[in-house]
Specification:
- There is one protein chain.
- The protein is an all-alpha fold and 85 residues long.
- It has one domain (2-79).
- Helices cover 68% and strands 0% of the residues.
- The protein has four helices and no strands.
- The chain has helices at 2-20, 28-41, 51-69, 74-79.
- Helix 1 (2-20) packs antiparallel against helix 2 and helix 2 packs across helix 3 (51-69).
- It starts with a helix and ends in a 6-residue tail after the last helix.
- The mean pLDDT is 80.
Amino acid sequence: MQLTKLIIIHNIVLIYLTLKYRDTGMNDNLKRYRAIRKALEKPYPAQPQGNQARLLNTLAALISGIVGSQKSCLSEVANKVPDGT
């Protein structure tokens, strides 16, 4: 389980660095959210469904907001979570 968590964190950091230094045309918040969501789904053999999918969406939005705002204050995080995810 610990190895899976480390792999997920490693993937999130790689995705963040890739997005940080890439020229983007799409909304940065949405692109960051989608990349993090995709990285969080990697350890699962099938697409998460139901409650598990809902929790992954929430976790991806929270991580995306923290990375985007570079703060952990909830109001700052909320400004960096994409709308309509």
